[in-house]
Specification:
The protein is mainly α and about 210 residues long. The protein is built from 9 helices and no strands.
């Protein structure tokens, strides 16, 4: 009678934690390069040096520079999604709102995020794949925003006559405009944060 053999595993087992850490390390290096020099002026060798990994190691996880760009876009979209949920889940008073957005408007990392968002938008004008991804994400983020406003309305945290669709579209456009101003005037972060809260308060009929 033949014996059943266990399948032979070839190569070393995948360490998911180590894999995640290395991919994060590479993306952090790519983010620094893209913010400082732009997508197209940054080379894989520069990203390799900044991230502290070999070029071969980068290609092990990302087949080309475009894959790095798309991965960074995904990370930015997740960050934006999480910010929307966190913003609308809490108190909508001025102190709470400004605290929720302080990591963006009052820190160097926040300004770097704003710069990267502009670079991403520029890449979308040249790259159809990026453009399609941005269009899909914009629809998704607006839907998340509208659902969050609706939940706040149903919970009595904003007036009942608020239109989640109209308010969501307005606040999304205002936020993008404020972020663009912030790119060129990082020292005005606190002023721009006050201006954004003014738009939130007016849209939701709150006391600013």
């Amino acid at each position: 009678m033949s014996k059943t053999r266990n399948p032979v595993q070839r190569g070393r087992p995948v360490n998911e934690q180590a894999r995640h850490e290395r991919m994060t390390q590479i993306l952090d290096g790519a983010r620094i390069c893209f913010i400082g020099r732009g997508f197209h002026a940054s080379s894989i060798s520069e990203i390799s040096a900044t991230a502290g990994v070999s070029v071969a190691n980068i290609y092990q996880y990302y087949p080309n520079k475009e894959a790095l760009i798309l991965a960074l876009i995904e990370a930015d979209l997740k960050r934006h999604h999480d910010m929307i949920v966190r913003f609308w889940a809490g108190d909508l008073g001025p102190a709470a709102v400004k605290r929720a957005l302080s990591d963006i408007f009052l820190t160097k990392e926040g300004h770097d995020i704003a710069v990267l968002r502009v670079e991403i938008a520029s890449e979308g004008a040249r790259n159809p794949e990026v453009a399609a991804m941005l269009r899909r994400s914009e629809v998704g983020l607006i839907q998340v925003l509208q659902r969050s406003i609706l939940a706040a309305r149903d919970e009595g945290r904003v007036p009942r006559d608020i239109d989640p669709i109209a308010v969501g579209e307005r606040l999304s456009l205002v936020f993008e405009g404020i972020m663009r101003l912030y790119v060129f005037s990082p020292s005005d972060g606190a002023i721009l944060l006050d201006r954004y809260y003014g738009q939130v308060a007016e849209s939701l009929h709150l006391t600013a």
